[in-house]
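Re: duplicated header lines in exported structure tokens

Our pipeline writes sequence and tokens for each protein into one text file. With two proteins the header for the second block appears twice in some exports. Here is an export where it did not happen, for reference. First protein block:
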Amino acid sequence: MVRRNPLREKRERKVLEKKEQVELKVRDLKPNSRWFTITVKVLKLNEEKTVLSRKDGNQHRVAEALVGDETGTILMSLWDDDIDKVKDLVGSTIKLQNGFVSLYRGSMRLGLGRFGSIEEAEEDISEVDETVNVSERRFESRGPPRYRRSRF
């Protein structure tokens, strides 16, 4: 069971309100980019999988969507209810607020934070540059090495 701390959530909301949202394009995304807004077209939604969370021990649905704009494309990780939101918007333009970029196996992934949101955009992206996929670039993790316990 995950405990909620109302005071911590209130502080986090204040930080979120203070941070100025930067509007980015796909070409501007870098590993560990945070707190930005991006407008992209949903090109494809891959098959969803069920995974077991290490944090809360519950099962969650996860899927990847290929999204992009006139500067390139990127894979976007979607969890649980966000999959259902994007499923109906394939071929449409969406606006992500409070997005972040993470590395998954050395590859950039677009994601939504706890306070992130997805909504259908007012403007439409007519052409997407599918020749540049920033998720195909490989990066090395710069953090300290993580050690896993042996099962033996």
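Second protein block, exported in the same file:
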Amino acid sequence: MIAAEKLPSIIASRYLPVRVIGRGGMGVVYEVVHARTGEHLALKLLLSGAGTPITDLQRFKREARAPAQIRSEHVVHVLDADTAPELEDAPFLVMELLEGLDLEQAATRSPPSPATVVEWLRQIAPALDKAHRLGIVHRDLKPENLFLANQEERPPMLKILDFGIAKITGEDSTATASGQILGTPKYMAPEQASQASKITGATDRYALGLVAYRLLAGESYYRGPVMSVLGELLHGVPSAPSARHPQLGAGFDAWFLQACHREPERRFASAVQQIEALAGALGLPCTLLTGEPSLSSAAAGAGPSGPSTTGASPVASQRTLSRKRRVAVLGAAFALCAAVLMYWAFSARKSTRRDMRAAERLEPAHDAPSGIPLERTPPPASISAAPLLATPIGSNALRTNPTSAAERAGAPSPRRKSVTAPKAISSARSKPAPAVDPYQDQK
């Protein structure tokens, strides 16, 4: 086994150790400087060297691969993974160097307000949901693995650390099959303490409920020796948090009992939904992070097993109401336009009919009953109305009716106002033309 104090001056021919950042059961974390770029990074080294158990190597691989798959700014970025020939081929991974403190340290120094707790957990909720969609379950969510990283000219950003014991779907996990209980008992879900239960994203959401309790109440929900905590996980019935801390209220009780329900399928469907429901339980405004529904308050729709997770948020309700109003206004506008067009068409048609009737009254009738000759309208008083002489067809004069004036005088006149012919101006023109016998040639 390699001692942390006996590190070489360089690791993997490119990393220069600077100081020890932290120690753990699997290894130690150093601040290092990249020999070629001068960048300060964090290097996590397994101290067991070449004799590293296969289970530890698998965990190390998962810790390197899981953040690369999730690709979220709220998950610590792993930059490199290799073995160090200078340290008996001990495996290591290199991560971004974070400056700040974890949530356990932050809560110990100064208890956060409910609004601060909700804001912290809102940051990591989408990253957790993305990991679960990829089939990655962290299995060790706790305040120590949630790091508040300082940023220049911006508020601290919460990041998820240590995917070392994460469960990745499709991988053969020897650690799980060996009967080991992986995780921290105080933030463990009941299915983690039972080898017969399946580990899913609901396991991380259970731990998220316990983290929220720790930050708001100032203590862990499960206390005492490890075996006592495991027994309570397997056989105990969770009690209402307000029984210990009345300031948390009944709304938080309902939220907590659903977030930490013994049956995974009775918990919240996603981390985003869970944190938005927490905001409602604490009387804080709810927001939509990824389009999922959130609760305006935990009391609204609360049932025997806790607040309902199917209610729509006030923002979603207002958007739906606005869409309905727009549709109603557009429908009314279309109906009004249709009514105006119909009225205009009807008025135009009515006016056309009225004009046609007026024209019929003003114009003379051109059709007469069968067998009744039409009487020509006499010319004005200044023009004589002498009848025209019959001329051949080829001449330019108009051809007259062959009937005589006496026959026309005896014919009945049509039913219209008679007009008296004016007196002839010239007596020569007023003499009637001699009658022509059309059958004279035959005689």
